[in-house]
Amino acid sequence: MTKSRHRWSFPSFRSALNGEQGFNLVEVLIALALLAAVAGVFLVAVSTSSKAVMVGQDQVSAEGLAKSQMESIKQQNYSVTGQYTKITEPAGYHIGIAFVPLDPQGLHTGADEGLQKITVTVTHGTKPKPDFTLEGYKYKIGQ
Fold first, then answer.
1. Residue by residue, what is the 3-state secondary structure of 6-72?
2. Which of 2, 24, 73, 138 is the most buried (most CB within 10 A)?
3. 78: helix, coil or strand?
4. d(CA 93, CA 87)
5. Nearest Cα to 97, choosing from 127, 136, 42, 39?
6. Phi and psi (nearest 5°) for 82?
7. 126-142 pLDDT, tens digit each
8. Cβ partners under 8 Å of residue 114, min gap 6
9. Contact between 23 and 12 (Cβ < 8 Å)
10. Does the predicted TM-score (pTM) go above 0.70?
11. What does the DSSP 8-state code read for residue 88?
12. What is d(CA 100, CA 80) in angstroms, rounded to the nearest whole number?
């Protein structure tokens, strides 16, 4: 009768029937260490992806501001001095505008020939390097 009881017993009771008493302390500690390592890797991955999303959002915002500023400059009247009105800067952002008068005819007279290369830079925070730079051209109509 004992053979039939062993044959029909549950698989989880087999270790107890073979003389094993269960997990020992070393096995439990190794399992906990593996679990902690996996959890640590997961937390590092979540942190890294969160930082990447924040950087991506800053770049998208900077690109949108630069494009808005460039469109604003294109709608303004031509300025020989390159003094164009800035759009409203959101908190934490700085918009820079630079212009270079171009000499498309190669006369090298130093006078403004009616064509300017406009560079718009947008920086978020106090970083020395701009988050986004956009270049475009402004020309004087009727020249």
1. HHCCCHHHHHHHCCCCCCCHHHHHHHHHHHHHHHHHHHHHHHHHHHHHHHHHHHHHHHHHHHHHHHH
2. 73
3. coil
4. 11
5. 136
6. 75, 20
7. 888 888 999 999 888 76
8. 78, 139, 140, 143
9. no
10. no
11. P
12. 10
Sequence-distant (≥ 6) Cβ neighbours of residue 73 within 8 angstroms: 84, 97, 118, 120, 136, 138
Residue type, 92: G
Residue listed under structure tokens 């718009």: 120
The pLDDT tens digits of the residues spanning 29-68 come to 999 999 999 999 999 999 999 999 998 988 899 999 999 9
Residues 64/128, Cβ–Cβ less than 8 Å: no
